[in-house]
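Fold this sequence, please.
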Amino acid sequence: MTCYPGKTLQSPGIKQGISGFVYLESGNRMPMKGAEPQKARGLSTTIYVYEATNLGQVSRVGVSPYYTAIYSKPVTTVLSDSTGAFTVGLAPGIYSLFVKQGNRFYANAFDTNNNIAPVTVEKEKLAKATITVNSSATY
């Protein structure tokens, strides 16, 4: 997951869970001499929160970041606003975050144990997460 500095997260009364942003990157993202890098834009979408999910617990489309089925336990969903910001209250634990593109789930981050987009929630803390949807970007 990528970090975008300078943003503040709103957490209306939620003191434990995950707070973050969903960004969309598309088009040519190659650095160009003399040009400012394009900024990702916030994406209003549904974030699907599952119990920690490993690659062995999904039906994956080849080696892509797309999944047709997730076999771990679904926990909740949350909507990001027009800037991509979201906050969701959760019990302590490890969760995997997905968004949908069409009828497929999307997540492009992994840890060293092949857990998909993992975020750890600790007691009385808000974990920070950033989801970058870059399936239509070229680098």
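DSSP finds no helices and eleven strands in the chain. The longest strand covers residues 126-138.
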